[in-house]
Amino acid sequence: MPVERLALILFIAFAGAGLTVWLGTLLFAPGIPAFARIGVLVPVALFGWLFWRVLAARLADKEDDHYDRIEK
């Protein structure tokens, strides 16, 4: 595995963990009003939906699978 790929995986894992902790403290902090929580949840939900759609389109593309069987 190339070092660049390993670094990217580690960066994504740490960024995801940090985002999870940040969102958890923002959403469940006792002093935050309800409208601010909804204001945070809407962009996060839209990003999650977009990520899911892109991932589903990538996995369902049969034309792209052709290149997986080519010897390098």
Describe the structure.
With 72 residues, the chain is mainly α. The chain contains three helices and no strands. The longest helix has 27 residues, at 34-60. It is elongated. The two termini are 15 Å apart.
Key attributes of the depicted protein:
72 residues; 3 helices
In short:
The chain has 72 residues and is mainly α.
Unreliable spans are: none
**Amount of beta strand:** under 5%
By DSSP (H or I, 4+ residues per run), the number of helices equals: 3
Mean pLDDT: 80
Query: Which radius of gyration do the C-alpha atoms yield?
Result: 18 Å
Approximately how much helix is present in the residues? over 70%
Question: Structural class of the secondary structure composition?
Answer: mainly alpha
What is the H-and-E element order?
HHH
Number of strands: 0
N- and C-termini, Cα separation? 15 Å
Query: Which word captures the global form?
Result: elongated
The largest sheet is:
none
Topology:
Layout: H1 3-28, H2 34-60, H3 62-65
